[in-house]
Amino acid sequence: SSELTQDPAVSVALGQTVRITCQGDSLRSYYASWYQQKPGQAPLLVIYNKDNRPSGIPDRFSGSSSGNTASLTITGAQAEDEADYYCNSRDSSGNQYVFGTGTKVTVL
Amino acid sequence: QVQLVQSGAEVKKPGASLKVSCKASGYTFTSYTIHWVRQVPGQRPEWMGCINAGNGNTKYSQNFQGRVTITADTSASTTYMELSSLRSEDTAVYYCARGFETGNYFDYWGQGTLVTVSS
Question: Which of B35, B47, B109 lies at the smallest CB-CB distance from A98?
Fold first, then answer.
């Protein structure tokens, strides 16, 4: 299957830790990347190649992967982290890209 | 600094064709791929296809095969995405994004182009 499945929504108390997961068979072969998207904005890359952060992304964002599951962890969530988060990777053929179903993160 | 600047919003009739441009600056255009991603309001992004700006090779999503064409003008550092036979379900925001031939991520994105298909 080329589908990437995420939990639809999670909530986290301000300053606490939240983990978002992304499951799919292709993740056994390809790294996931993670994108943050706020209303009316383009997606923003926050994690690539499993656990790398682009310049400017706070170190409270981290990534990991095991088997068919990739994870994005926000340690010490801030109000500005409230957004939709999407994982992305290649499909099993390696020639196409697939976005995950998306997770809405609410910071309480 | 890397920038991807897209053309403006469009309104199209069903059955018409669409062409959106994406002008790159701040990096060596031919060293990267440009991907096109669309997002219907309230839904997840959807990958449409990409072009290797260095050699012109393209890949397309099976979901758009035959309807989408991606081209690049290296002299203008600009990529174009054409979508034909438009229908109301093609109403979406269309993004270009920079990627890598062997990478699995898109590090810079255009601002998006809203396309409305309506009779």
Answer: B47
